[in-house]
Write a structure and sequence with these properties.
16 helices; mainly alpha
């Protein structure tokens, strides 16, 4: 069975247009927040803020445990069967798991706070304590948002986290500056604002779910905990290793070097994400297309869609990387400030790594959407090991640039592995050529 590729692409573009706008808006807001905080806090303060964000991300790994993905999948499946009692059960179960795991994490890390109380500055400790509140708040918000997406309220499910949260954060930041002064904004104050904005996101997602999920509100919840626990394990592995990959460089920099270097590196990392803007947007559009064409056996159309999306992704990436290579100093100085010019070498290294990421196409989504998520687990696991080892070797020698080089190597490793996996299992070439 073959589909006419062009009409399908048009339908997907129309259906996904709002989602693409939301994704683009979220990425731009994230970059804007990073720029504002980098300028206000300076390299050292921004380094403290970024280091705590990385710690919170790692501590949040066991809290999420792949729960959002499981909630989306099970809610969607159970809706077809109209099993509203089990739907309510998984919603309540996932919320309880978040709170249980958050409490467990707090109990486990508390002794470390006592032992290492003298190693961190007062500002770093205050920021860390404020940041720990993000662990349960973000976890609960994500499972509520996942429930909305499972009910097919895909756009509504993205609004609290992708739109409301960054907007509230920037409004708080602007209000504080207008009422007082930017000089009173510290890493701790910024983190407290983020906690408040995340709380608003949780409230909105819970409120929206209460409105659209009324069919599950009036039934007695039914639980299938053992099945859910078994199902969440492979999803948890992918989620955990991805988060470790994203946080390793910042965490190890914070352990080896000063907050100043962490702040410099965070600017480079923020800038490098712009290289894969096209990849992020393309994934949002083509993921369901990958699944549909694979399941109907139309591999010809699948190859054409993969090639077309890869060319668009690479075109955007090449444009951004060219700007960084030709005018990296000018861009960093104008956007973040001249005190961050030390980030330029790391930015160019990370941009090169992300260029490889873009050149390989949507390999991760292609494998996941076609039932080959085990290959993704292998790739990200190997990449995480490479990332940790290379960071530990390169940071003491080359500092910020060493962290960038280690991260770029890990990006190349995982994308190369996935490219060959796509070729082997799907006989699809995911690169633009």
């Amino acid at each position: 069975m073959h589909d006419n590729t062009a009409p399908l692409v048009k339908r997907l573009l129309r259906a996904g247009s709002v989602g693409v706008v939301i994704k683009a808006f979220s990425m731009l807001m994230t970059i804007a927040i990073g720029v504002v905080l980098a300028r206000i806090l300076g390299p050292e303060g921004y380094g403290v803020y970024s280091f705590v964000i990385a710690i919170v991300a790692v501590l949040g790994i066991p809290v999420e445990l792949g729960l959002p993905t499981l909630v989306v999948r099970e809610t969607a499946r159970l809706c077809v069967e109209e099993r509203w009692d089990v739907i309510r059960g998984i919603w309540k179960w996932s919320g309880r798991m978040v709170m249980l795991l958050s409490s467990t994490i707090f109990l486990v890390v508390s002794p470390f706070f006592v032992v290492y109380a003298d190693t961190y500055s007062e500002e770093k400790w205050a920021t860390l304590i404020a940041g720990l509140l993000l662990v349960p708040i973000v976890g609960l918000a994500k499972v509520r948002s996942a429930a909305l997406r499972g009910l097919r309220y895909v756009i509504v499910g993205q609004l609290p986290e992708q739109v409301a949260k960054p907007v509230v954060f920037l409004v708080l930041l602007g209000s504080f500056i207008s009422l007082f002064s930017s000089q009173y904004i510290t890493a701790t104050v910024a983190m407290s604002m983020l906690v408040f904005a995340s709380g608003i996101s949780l409230f909105l997602s819970a409120y929206m779910l209460g409105n659209v999920g009324k069919q599950a509100a009036d039934v007695r919840p039914a639980y299938d905990s053992q099945t859910w626990i078994r199902a969440v394990i492979p999803l948890a592995v992918i989620s955990a290793v991805n988060l470790i990959n994203k946080s390793t460089d910042t965490l190890l920099l914070g352990m080896y070097l000063s907050p100043y270097e962490v702040g410099i590196y965070s600017v480079a990392a923020q800038g490098a994400l712009v290289v894969i803007f096209g990849l992020s947007v393309a994934n949002l559009i083509v993921a369901p297309y990958f699944s549909r064409l694979y399941n109907i056996g139309d591999f010809g159309s699948l190859q054409r869609v993969v090639t077309l999306s890869s060319r668009c992704i690479l075109l955007v990436a090449l444009f951004v990387v060219a700007f960084y290579l030709l005018a990296g100093d000018v861009i960093v100085g104008a956007v973040f400030g001249r005190e961050y010019l030390g980030a330029v070498p790391a930015l160019k290294i990370l941009a090169a790594g992300q260029l490889v990421n873009a050149a390989m196409g949507s390999v991760g989504f292609l494998l996941t959407m076609t039932g080959h998520e085990k290959e993704v687990v292998k790739a990200v696991s190997i990449s995480a090991v490479v990332n940790i080892v290379c960071n530990m070797v390169f940071i003491p020698v080359w500092g910020v640039s060493g962290a960038a080089f280690a991260t770029a190597i890990s990006i190349v490793v995982w994308n190369t592995y996935l490219w060959f996996s796509v070729k082997k299992h799907l006989n699809i070439k995911s690169s633009p050529i």
